[in-house]
Give the backbone structure.
Amino acid sequence: MSEEIDRKIAVIFATDVVSYSKHMEANESETVKNLRVCEKILTKLFKKHGGCLFNTGGDSFLAEFPSAVGAVECAVEFQNEIKTRNTLDNTTVKLQFRVGVNTGDFIKEKSNLPGEEVVTYIFSLGNK
């Protein structure tokens, strides 16, 4: 009995917070509160542009999109909304996000897309 690995071509949207550790060190509670607001913005935009959140980790969010165009439009709109949010006086922690979009051949494992392709991409995103 062979256990085959299910693979698929997918468009991945990845984002994480710039200097998240420094924000947490400076004001943990306010950083978490502001990250939650940003996550709500992302969730709304994922739905609007056809994306599906499949993994999170601390300050990072991974979503799969059926279209590279949809993923890029979502990224641009997210960055614009965050920029606007950071100009508001009541924004206590002004978070900035790195966002990347990658298309590739991924392993499909239940509702996740694990594998070297995703890990390599996320690692490169965090080092820019």
